[in-house]
Design goal:
Keywords: Activator, Coiled coil, DNA-binding, Nucleus, Transcription, Transcription regulation. Belongs to the bZIP family. CNC subfamily. Residues 111-157, 370-399, 449-475, 620-643 are annotated as: Disordered. The chain is mostly helical. The chain has 2 domains: 2-229 and 576-642, no CATH class; 350-515, no CATH class. The protein has 32 helices and 4 strands. The strands form 2 sheets. A two-stranded antiparallel sheet has the order 1-2. It has a two-stranded antiparallel ribbon with strand order 3-4. Strand 3 (606-610) and strand 4 (616-620) form a beta hairpin. Helix 1 (2-21) packs across helix 11 (201-209) and helix 22 (409-415) packs across helix 28 (481-488). It is rod-shaped, with a radius of gyration of 43 Å. The relative contact order is 0.13. The chain binds a DNA duplex (15 and 15 nucleotides) through helix 20 and helix 31.
DNA sequence: AGACGCTGTCATAGA
DNA sequence: TATCTATGACAGCGT
């Protein structure tokens, strides 16, 4: 919207310049002095009528930075123009213009005839965007053919440069003549452009700006221009912020492309030595880059070991701090788990020593240790164990035989010799639990997997009370059902060992120990259940993480929605203000235009229209008529849209 | 006593 | 084909 305002502003300026060229004095010098002061300086000179301003050239090259490096407003304007160009390359809609302007001049009847052929010739040359030398050449070529007659003005309106300098606009003038034939007699001296292609607004404005050299305006409309320009400058700040913020919002799903785009923009901006807009863009870009860096950090954190986390990305979409801390927490957890594993591997080697030491420890303390170990496999059934009832009710029929086979195992538990339990610590002490437990590297295993060596001797110690009075109760309470079954079946391996040993070793155990079919089936069931238990824990953790991440995403999107709504309101408000100022400027320009009789144009009867190619013409406000109803409706629609 | 959350287990699909 | 993993569904248990 701010850019559209700039379009209007520039178009009006150049309209005024063009009108001055053809004889109508519309002085906007005082307005340009505040905003486009460098332009005025450039336009000074005796032969300025033939010199195209580098206004459009600078826009096409370095957006004016090389031309007016010390004009922050202009830099800002060009930066905004550049942003608009980038947006337009993406297929963004045009900014419709609704300024209708007439080129006011005097054309004699003979001129009309002379201008006919030249019109066609000039039309073929292009759109009036010739460079100065080309234009001068064209001028020299067309002048003998009456091109200057097109620019002939009335004596009272005659301006020196117009007699020859405006010939660079022969194309427009010829089109004016074509239109004159269609206009009423009262408007015979008014010329206007017949086409208003909005697609070429930028080029057209550039072409119009060529005439800026010739006529430093002298009329004052300070209050309008200054207000408009002040609004423009302030609004451009908002524009940059809006652009930056909008890019950030888009980073959710298009992080890479937007980041690349930001980098490109940053490089472009960095290439410029000065310019407030560049600085502001840098600010925005730095914000972007900082945000991107956070993503990069998160990504780096994922690459460090959590990359396989399927929902880590979801977590990263949340607030930076939270995601960062959460990620750090995951990292810390993983690090500590690895440390625990490393330490526990060493503990396996000192199981016997530890057992000897633990034998002197109070059983109650060991019980507390067991509870703190979090061995879900061991303590999940920490409640009153009723192996027979619970297992029979929950187990499938496939295990009924096993259960039947183990029928009475609850009573056999007491008779289970401690041999098997002691074997827990000796048979598979060399099992690399740290390698086998972490099949799924995305989540840390339950703590019990990290302390097998401590738990096993612990259990061995806990077997000590077996000989005591409450020994069986403690054992039944602490052992899982599978553990009890294994003990009942005289399987000399712990559940942990059965679950975590490699499949090759497991198969060797099944084959090499002479187990009965019931024992083999129980071993397979224990292994399967243990692995599935771990898988279920990981699955639930993932599910919770996903839910958490989605909740945070919802909060973030809600905040984004609120911010966008606020920006939308601000944009609408600014758009309305710009539209009003455009209307006021149009009225002012029309009030300063004169027809051949020297009378000002009635703003109610005429309107300014700025075409997409930059040509600004004065068009009459068509009255409601049957023949022109279509065009009138179009104008009305345009007016309605403008309002 | 019912709701709720946690956990273990089973069945199943897919790798 | 066997094994492993992931996940929905179900049930038991504790709060």
């Amino acid at each position: 919207m701010q850019i559209a305002k700039k379009y209007f502003t520039e178009g009006l300026i150049q309209l005024t310049i063009l009108l001055s060229l053809i004889g109508v004095r519309v002085d906007i010098d005082s307005y340009l002095s505040g905003y486009y002061s460098p332009l005025i300086e450039i336009n000074l000179g005796p032969s300025s009528a033939y010199t195209q301003t580098p206004f459009h050239i600078s826009r096409d090259t370095l957006d004016g930075y090389s031309v007016h490096p010390k004009c922050p407003e202009l830099d800002h304007f060009f930066a905004s123009r550049r942003l608009l160009d980038e947006v337009r390359t993406l297929g963004s809609p045009r900014f419709p213009t609704q300024l209708n302007a007439w080129l006011v001049h005097q054309v004699s009847a003979s001129d009309k005839a002379d201008c006919g052929p030249s019109s066609s010739n000039n039309t073929d040359t292009g759109s009036g965007l010739e460079r100065p030398e080309d234009q001068a050449r064209d001028d020299s070529e067309h002048l003998p053919h009456g091109g200057h007659e097109v620019c002939q003005t009335t004596p009272e309106l005659g301006q020196g440069p117009c007699s020859s300098g405006a010939c660079g606009f022969l194309k427009e003038e010829n089109e004016v003549q074509v239109k004159e034939e269609e206009e009423p007699a009262a408007l015979a001296q008014l010329a206007h452009s017949s086409t208003l292609e909005q697609e070429s607004l930028l080029e057209g404005i550039a072409a119009l700006s060529d005439a800026a050299h010739h006529h430093p305006p002298t009329i004052d409309i300070e209050q309008h221009w200054s207000s408009l320009l002040s609004l423009s400058v302030t609004d451009l700040d908002d524009l940059d912020s809006l652009v930056a913020d909008t890019d950030i919002t888009s980073a959710i799903s298009q992080d890479v492309s937007l980041h690349d785009a930001m980098v490109t923009s940053a490089s472009i901006a960095a290439g410029r030595a000065e310019g407030r807009s560049a600085t502001q863009q840098h600010r925005g870009l730095f914000r972007q880059e900082s945000t991107g860096s956070l993503h990069s950090d998160a990504s780096a954190g994922m690459a460090l070991g959590l990359a396989s986390l399927p929902f880590a990305s979801v977590c990263n979409l949340t607030g930076n701090v939270s995601s960062h801390s959460a990620l750090g927490g995951c990292l810390d957890e993983a690090v500590f788990d690895q440390i625990n594993q490393l330490g526990l591997e060493g503990l396996d080697t000192i199981d016997t020593q530890l057992m000897g030491c633990l034998q002197n420890i109070d059983p109650q303390v060991l019980e507390d240790l067991d509870s703190d170990s979090g061995l879900s496999l061991e303590s999940s059934s920490g409640g009153p164990v009723s192996p027979g009832s619970s297992e029979m009710s929950s187990s499938s029929s496939s295990y009924c035989e096993d259960e039947c086979g183990a029928t009475g195992y609850s009573s056999e538990v007491d008779s289970v010799p401690s041999k098997g339990i002691m074997d827990y610590t000796t048979t598979w002490s060399s099992v690399d639990l740290s390698e086998n437990v972490w099949h799924d590297h995305r989540y840390s295993s339950p703590p019990f997997f990290n302390q097998p060596s401590v738990t096993l001797p612990h259990k061995g110690i806990k077997e000590e009370p077996l000989s005591d009075d409450d020994g069986p109760k403690l054992e039944e309470r602490d052992l899982s059902r599978d553990e009890l079954r294994a003990r009942a079946m005289c399987i000399p391996f712990s559940v942990l060992q059965i679950v975590n040993m490699p499949v090759e070793e497991f198969l060797e155990v099944l084959d090499g120990h002479g187990f009965s079919p019931e024992q083999v089936a129980l071993l397979r069931d224990i292994r399967r259940r243990g692995k599935n238990k771990l898988a279920a824990q990981n699955c639930r953790k993932r599910k919770l993480d996903a839910i958490t991440g989605l909740q945070e995403e919802v909060e973030r999107l809600q905040a984004q929605r609120d911010r966008l709504l606020r920006e939308k309101q601000l944009t609408a408000k600014t758009m309305g203000a710009v539209g009003q100022q455009i209307e006021q400027l149009t009225r002012d320009v029309l009030a300063r235009l004169r027809d051949d009789s020297g009378q000002p144009l009635n703003p109610e009867r005429f309107t300014l229209q700025c075409g997409a190619n930059g040509r600004v013409v004065v068009q009459p406000v068509r009255r409601p008529a049957v023949s022109t109803s279509t065009g009138n409706k179009t104008d009305k629609r345009k007016k309605e849209k403008k309002q």
